[in-house]
Amino acid sequence: MSGGEVPFVVVVFTCLVCTGIMANFTIVLPLSVYWSGAMLADAGIISSYAIGAIISLTFWVRYDSSSIKLCYLNHAFMVIIGNVLFAFTPSIDQWWYSWLARFVLGLEGGAMYNANLALISLSNPANRVKYLAYYQSFVGLGLVLGPAISATTTALALGFTSHPHSLRTILAAVFMGLWGFFLFIALIFYMPDDASIRETVGHSDSKGIPLDNTSSQSDTDEIVKENNWSYLDKAYVLLLAFLGNFMRIFQRLAWEVSAIVLLAQYFNWGAIAAGYSLAIFGILQTVAQYFYGEARKSLQSGTLKDSVKDLRRFETLEIIAIAALFSKTNASHNWRDFFNITFILASLLFYLASCLTSAPLNDLILFRSTRAGLYEKNVHAHKKTLLAMQYGIFVAFFAAPIAARAVLHIGGLNTTSLAGLLVLGWALQTTTNSITIGRIGSRRPVVIAFIITLFMIWSSFDKSLGGTGPKNLFTYHPVAMTIAFYALMTPGHLVYRDDAAFLTTGDFSLLFSNPTPENDDKGIDKSDRRKAHLIYLSLATFFAVVGYFFIFAAHAQSGESQIGQAETSSRSAHVALGYICLLWLAIQATTGSFKFNALSTGLPPVFTWHGLSGKYLLLFAYITSCLGFWLRMNYSNQGAWNIGIKFALTGGAISLFAYRAFPNSMHPPAGIDQDPIPEDVIDRPSAHGQGDTSTNLA
């Protein structure tokens, strides 16, 4: 075979392996609706698969591209054993046994790493995009198959008995057990041995080194030496690979695990309809991945700018969709129907956008991996980076079900609880992505700050969300403080940045443009920036004083201490931090006015530490507000925001803290915006162009 094509039989069996792994994990989502009813206990059973998968990577990683058949045979054997054990869970009916059976089944999961590695190592860079597109389709098939099997076995069980709870689990386990059995038999008779596979694709030895590749491990060592990246630098890239894939999978699974319960119970669809709904979502994301891949492939771009732009677009679509998931829990019947429809449409947009972040994100991660010398030319792959990605995916398999079910358990079975968790996840995800890109512009923090402010106003005035309402004096304290530190001080601190023209000129249309050298506002006089800064911070100081007035009045009305005496430790801490913020703000306002007057009159600058102090004041205010978000809000100490509201506000604050705390620049680091690619970058890792492209995992 020529042209770097992977043998068709290997593609077929890789498809069966990947699809089976994802089906084995997702098949329990509809089934979990009928389990104990204890959210956390059920989540533990779902997550136990991930523990097995995480542990299994330690031995699956020992198989390389020269042991494909043996690896797949062992995978099929583990599928059989795990599902045989799981089939007995209804008769044993013990939580610990269900956990153990799913854990053993999870030991097959690590083969996902080998499946991805097989496609990468057996294809050449020119054809690799096609096979990685296949890989993502295989994952999508598993997302479809698992819930569909579960829904079908539930329907069959209902037709055979009036007590279908045991039968539906047995049928699902039997189906997947037979899947593993027939896969094992097919591998024995139809999968060629590894020597034949290597000979077919032109690999010369058991290490998988291509015949036409004259490089050796010393070449990789030389790349590391030339780039002069330390082990700490490489560890940092691997950490980004882990965190980036953890967060994107966490978001998807948190929605899936929550949506199956919400659709079945909150919207009264039942487990069968909910299971088929998840299958439809899986089909649509597979189709979306295909068309996105085709669109990117047609660009034939030589830079990574398209990946940066696409990643930002998908992040924006995600947060828009998440915002639409918030709803009023006490809505009338007519409005409830509206929120039901909105949930489906917003969920679809969120799910597709979340899935599509995979390719551009890992494209950027592998770019950094190559520059760090982690690309192994002798096997045409980033093995260490792939492994870090896979660990991130499996840790998300473990964490997402527990976090999602815990939020529904604490916050109640409603869409707002889920939406809040997704906002928090989105904040952490977009922060990690920004660090990976190496660029954090001014537009995103400003938009997030405005959204937090609007959200605070809504949630404070709306009692159905846990707010105290417009008649309560306390209501105006968090509203005024959020306006002060988020809507005013955050943009006020950014006015001196080159990409913040809209904050000085008032041209907010630039919020929707990409920051480029062409639309930088370096020509704006610094005195104009200084005036804008003075206006923003003066207004911020005014609203902070107003906010303090209302909390003082609310405490006086309720007879509570103004300094946090005889209060809970968390409330006392918030009071103490709040007074520090106000004192710090007073110092900043005073020194800032003196500095402005000095610079305006041509005198030497004074209080040169004012700018740096303002940055840390803003970070301190974010921390103080986060603590306040989690307090009971009214003076009678009864009631509080839904946990989803708290997560949403906290997530926004975390993202702003990260944007302002981490060093950042307006433009990407060298290489991402360069064309052609710098000479020190070999085999550019693009998900949709030439070079190594191990990007689309789960």
Automatic annotation (TrEMBL):
InterPro entries: Cyt_b561/ferric_Rdtase_TM, MFS, MFS_trans_sf. Pfam families: Cytochrom_B561, MFS_1. Its main location: membrane. Coiled coil: none annotated. Gene3D superfamilies: 1.20.120.1770, MFS general substrate transporter like domains. SMART domains: B561. Keywords: Electron transport, Membrane, Transmembrane, Transmembrane helix, Transport. It is found in: Membrane. SUPFAM superfamilies: MFS general substrate transporter. The chain crosses the membrane at residues 7-27, 33-60, 72-90, 96-120, 132-158, 170-190, 235-254, 266-293, 343-365, 386-404, 410-428, 440-461, 473-489, 534-556, 576-596, 616-633, 639-659. Residues 673-698 are annotated as: Disordered. One of its GO terms (molecular function) is transmembrane transporter activity. Residues 476-629 form the Cytochrome b561 domain. GO terms for cellular component: membrane. This is Cytochrome b561 domain-containing protein. It comes from Aureoumbra lagunensis.
